[in-house]
Give the backbone structure.
Amino acid sequence: MRTASNGFYPPHRKWIGELFMGIQRTRLVRPLIAAALGGCCGCLLALLPLLRTAPSAPVIAFVPRTSGTNFTEDMHRGAQAAAEKAGYRIYWNAPTREDDVDRQIGIAENAVRRGARALILGPANIWGVTTMVNDLIARRVPVVFVQTGPAEPTGPYLTSITPDQTQFGRLAAARAAVVTGGSGQVAIVGIDRGTPETLLRADSFNRAIASYPNIQVVAQSPGAVQTMEAEQSTRELVSAYPQLKAIFAVSADATQGAMLALQDVDARHAISLIGSDRDLFLAANLREKKLDSLVSLDGYRIGYLAVQAALVGIAGRPLPPSLHVGVQLLTPTNLVFNGNH
Amino acid sequence: MQPSLRDLIVFAVAGAAGLFITQGAFRMVQSPSRGLPYHDDFAGGDASEWIAYDGNWNVQSGVMVNESNERGAKLVTGSPYWTNYAMDADIALSNTGDAGIIARVSDAEPGVDAYSGIYVGLRVRDESLVIGVADHGWHELEAKDLPHPIESSIWYHIRLEISGCNLRVFTWQGSRNDAVRLDESLTPCPKRGKIGLRSYDSGGQWKNIRVTELSDRAAAF
């Protein structure tokens, strides 16, 4: 038999030793488990406030072409007023470039994915957003177009609240007739096929100006949302038509560009600029008489009505039919009077 | 001592320790002083700690440049827990739009005014110093005329001190000694947040970005 002295224990002592170690282990294991559990509970208790989230109001997404301008901020305020009244919140975001249709689609889709109940969209390009809009309609998400109407027919899940572009062009034409004295050359700048309202405004202007036989529309310059392009077009017009009496700029950017060009060539005293949209600093420019007049939209009303339409759709009823909101002509004399500055 | 009582005491002590250690770690991470003072001179072209939301940002010889004229491109850094601080930056504009700095920034995402925070900048169109609040929308608080027209590619210094809901802004052109000052009180105001650089309808250049914590004495303006 081997003894402990040469490294071996008798069998009964080995069994006792293992039992002793087991008891020791149990004694250690239980407090260790208690400590671990206690520590975890303490940590969880500290993390508890992070798990609490404040209840938030349901959301309507409003994605205009771009934002930070007078017109879009008016729409934002109108939308917020209507949403607050109904207990809703507006998620407001827009691409940093007016023609960035991909970014706009991304913003709109993300908003709907995060739970927006309806989408109000000022499309960067009406054809570019068709797939997204059709997809939302298929999922019964109400979609309301603002700024310009949709490419597809409206229906129970699609409607539009847009400015009356026909009246827009008519007001501009009537003003052109006044500033030219009923005869002379006029031109249109800023026509952009991607933004249909510029085409509608120009078309309506042409039809209305046709009733003044002595006024001739000598040029209709294309342009995009870039101010610089409109500026260049206006410079070319001024140089090509020295007898030009008036220019109708069909968008805010085109107005800004045309105004810069007319200032630089010092022809503004001879050429009246009829601008569009109370945007950028155009109201201030009008007050300073850098523009003859401005055909202006009521952004607040458009935003307010768009949310009201969206709420109808959210309630499960068919969206109301498309609606045109009236526009007005601002001149330096009626600008302050109307409180539009 | 009964083993179960012993285990209960161990559980309670460990629980309390876990609670205090976690809270302490949170307090440390959420400290308004953490990471301050902050300084970035964009040495070595490194801008890895900045997050871009739109725009075309790159570092050129110690200057952060945004070459895009998008509306509302921004570059953000810092701690979301910074509260009362002064931010300094040198800014040069191009010949349109506006450019400046943003403070107490939270909820930033791509988009024009897609963040919550305070914007202070120089605006070329009306030659002014502008202060406004963005909350996924834009609310302009004040625009103060500058004594001289803004010159493109000339360095202007902007200092924004923000304490509680009080703002104090200074700006001056490097070589001139005629600082423009604006004081504003906001109700309500963004409580805390990161810092950033922002431009609107214009590119811009920024350098020497500094953020320092406002001492209680300095903060009591």
